[in-house]
Amino acid sequence: MTLALQTIELGLKVAKRTVLEGISLDFPTGSVTAVIGPSGCGKTSFLRCLNRLTELWPQVTQLGQVLLGGVDVQRSGMPYPELRRRVGMVFQRPNPFPGTVYDNVAYGLRLHQRPGRSELDDRVEAAIQRVGLWAEVRDRLDEDALALSLGQQQRLVIARALAVEPEVLLLDEPSSALDPISTLRIEALITELKNRYTLILVTHNVQQAARVADYTAFLYGGQLLEHAESVRLFTNPQRQETEDYITGRYG
Amino acid sequence: MIGRSLERLAGGALALLLGAFALITAAVVYQGIAALVPPPLLQLQLHGGEQVNGLLLRETETELELLLEVRAAKPSWRRLQRSQIVHRSAPESACLLHASDGRIRLHVDCTTAAAAADPETWTRSYPNAGGTLALQRWWQAARDFLLAPVRPDGQGGIGSALVSTLVLVLLMTVLVVPLGIGVALYLAEYAQDTRLTRALRLTVANLAAVPPVVFGLFGLGLLVHVFGSQLDQWLFAERLPSPTFATGGLLWASLVLALLTLPVVVVACEQGLQRVPMRLREASLALGATRSETVLRVLLPAARPALLTAFILAVARASAEVAPLLLVGAVRYAARLPVSSEAPFVHLERPFMHLGYRVLDLATSSAGGHFALQQAFACALVLLLLVLALNGAAIAARFRLRARYRDLGTP
Ligand SMILES: Nc1ncnc2c1ncn2[C@@H]1O[C@H](COP(=O)(O)OP(=O)(O)OP(=O)(O)O)[C@@H](O)[C@H]1O
Ligand SMILES: [Mg+2]
Asked: What are the φ/ψ torsions at residue A106 (nearest 5 degrees)?
């Protein structure tokens, strides 16, 4: 079993306050790992450590190691743009760029490879196909992306992230802003994508984690309390806090 | 209770403001157009048999003021009491002969031999004629106002002043917009929130409070005398001692205006950039874009409406300034335009005429009297139209963009 991504003793300090501490997690290639935990426990911060979006916050220090395909990101001096091309991210709220559906998906491709027009067309179509949005937008490629429904926008930004062929995809509560039907579609999409990509899914929805994730990590107060195969973690939690959380005793 | 009176106060202030604005605009438009309609040529019969012919410049309850002729740039006037007049008429055939050097002759009957004049020097117009002739006359006056050659005393058509003003403002825009966007980008995107950047931001804001004439002095002292002299020694040594860049000219004037308008441009651009939602930056960075790619492909396009606003503010501000320009290149009379049809097309070193200066000059000149004041209004009207045209273009562009970026929402 190869590891697409691995963290060793990962920590994060924001203005001297410890947000994350000592998180060591393995993400096997082609798996889905859910990260769950109460609000404010550091789930979003953890994801941002993985693609270094933490650098946008003032006064942050990131500790520990992140290994991408076995290579230490920090020590190898990998430029952040390269890291982020290989570790894609989908945000809690859909955030398409103002501009057409087509330009949104082509954005990353135009940055990195600058393919010719027909190749670009093909790859944009392939990315939109992969998220099951093609039938809905094939006639609307030149329309404003903001005119799509929220659920469509979220699948569009997933297509945008997939278009640059990342190895790992980080999903930060990708369905929390969506209606139940759109949520189900996203879940189906995650299951479809998991063999090709390594997915890390932050979610507030315990059932969702149980449905789609192979592994689940429970964060609590910035620390990793438990990490196991989902089936095991949800049926037989080792820690009292985990049990309290998954049975809905806090939120 | 207090809320009520505050509301009335605010409403009153607004009404006052709008009223004043409407009044000024109306005055400029009315007087400006009136300047283009030449006064009637009157034939007056006085008590005692004397006959007077003259252009009616001003008429009050009791008095008439007439222009009799202009000989070698010396106008002769006559003021008459209404009570002196026995008979008053405005013959259709009366004509006005106008020489390019400013001389004016009046004839009550243009068909006579006395009125036959050399058409090379004298242009003829019929101030009292009606119908198509009246239209022609108006057309002629408007054309003269714009296209007649300028004379060394600064009188004559305002066309070249208009062109020069336009070139100056456009050049200023070319300079200030990239500079302003650069500073705003630095402040909004790259600068850390340190004491230094806070000081920088404060300095830029305070630049807006510096009186314009100080910018003019700065331009004269530093740009003209220091940079200009240096440039002349390096590049135009063969023309010395006659200065090329070491005297006021288009380049220095537009630089001074650019510095003058920099604060408004920076503030408007920075606000625009800050209003671009954080999640768009994050989306771009998360796709592997570098910082500068994010700036170029996401931030600047999304901030375009604000950048156009900055342009509008800069143009409005720059077109209003005269005082600093007097120090760095605006002149009453320039024989040549700062632009030409041959390379290098724009002559950055040339002094230039300016509509605002022309307004000032006409309004304060003692010679022209009422006539000159009307002309000043006409100039002001043209200046106003110029600013409106420039801003209209920017506003139209912003409208189109606004429709597209309306859904961006808040950061
Ligand atoms: N932009 C930011 N700048 C500085 N600190 C932040 C920022 N966002 C979050 N934090 C801090 O990081 C800590 C963890 O927040 P985080 O958003 O990672 O939690 P979360 O588990 O994602 O919560 P939620 O479930 O509500 O999204 C919080 O204590 C918060 O103060
Ligand atoms: Mg979160």
From this structure: -80, -10
Which of A97, A123, A143, A146 would best serve as a mutation to test chain B binding (most B beta carbons within 10 A)? Answer: A97
Q: Is the CB of A44 under 6 A from ligand 1?
A: yes
Considering CB atoms only, which of B278, B289, B301 is closest to A81?
B289
Structural element, H or E, at residue B294 = helix B291-294
CB atoms under 10 Å from CB of B126, counted, come to 19
Picking from B196, B57, B226, B286, the residue whose alpha carbon sits closest to that of residue A169 is B286
* Number of the ligand closest to the Cα of A205: 1
- Do A194 and A32 contact (CB within 8 A), yes or no? yes
Query: Whose C-alpha lies nearest to ligand 1, atom 23?
Result: A40
User: Own/partner pairs for B224-232, CB < 8 Å, 24+ apart?
Assistant: B224/B248, B224/B252, B224/B328, B228/B252
Q: Which residues of A touch B407 (CB under 8 A)?
A: 98, 144, 146
Helices assigned H by DSSP within A101-167 = 101-112, 117-130, 134-137, 150-163
User: 10 Å Cβ neighbour count for B68?
Assistant: 16
Q: Which of A58, A89, A98 sits opposite B302 (nearest CB)?
A: A98
Locate B175 and state its tokens. Answer: 């300079």
CA B10, CA A26: separation in Å to the nearest integer?
Answer: 65
Predicted TM-score (pTM) of the model is 0.77
Residue nearest to atom 16 of ligand 1 (CA): A42
Q: What gap in Å lies between CA B139 and CA B155, rounded to an integer?
A: 19
Q: Are B220 and B328 in contact (CB under 8 A)?
A: yes
Sign of CA dihedral B365, B370, B376, B380: positive
Does residue A160 line the site of ligand 1, with CB under 6 A? no
Q: What is d(CA A33, CA A74) in angstroms, rounded to the nearest whole number?
A: 23
- B159-408 homologous superfamily: MetI-like (1.10.3720.10)
Contact A51 B286 (CB under 8 A): yes
Cβ of A111 within 8 Å of Cβ of B408? The answer is no
Q: Which two tokens stand for residue B396?
A: 């139209």
Q: How far is A222 from chain B (nearest CA, A)?
A: 23
- Ranges of each domain in chain B: 41-147, 159-408
pLDDT in tens, chain B (411 residues): 677 888 889 999 999 999 998 998 888 888 888 777 777 888 888 888 888 888 887 777 888 888 888 887 677 888 888 888 888 888 888 888 877 677 888 888 877 766 666 777 777 777 787 777 778 777 877 888 888 887 777 677 888 889 999 999 999 999 998 999 999 998 888 877 788 888 888 888 888 888 888 988 988 888 888 887 787 778 877 777 777 777 778 889 999 999 999 998 998 999 899 889 999 999 999 999 999 999 999 999 988 888 888 888 888 888 888 889 999 888 887 777 887 777 777 777 788 888 888 888 888 876 555 667 778 888 888 888 888 888 888 888 877 776 665 544 433
Give, for B199, the enclosing helix (H) or strand (E): helix B195-207
Q: Which residue has the CA at smallest separation from atom 5 of ligand 1?
A: A14
Min Cα distance B200 → chain A (Å) is 20
Residues in a beta bridge with A226:
A218
- Between A and B, how many CB-CB pairs are < 8 A? 70
C-alpha gyration radius of chain B: 28
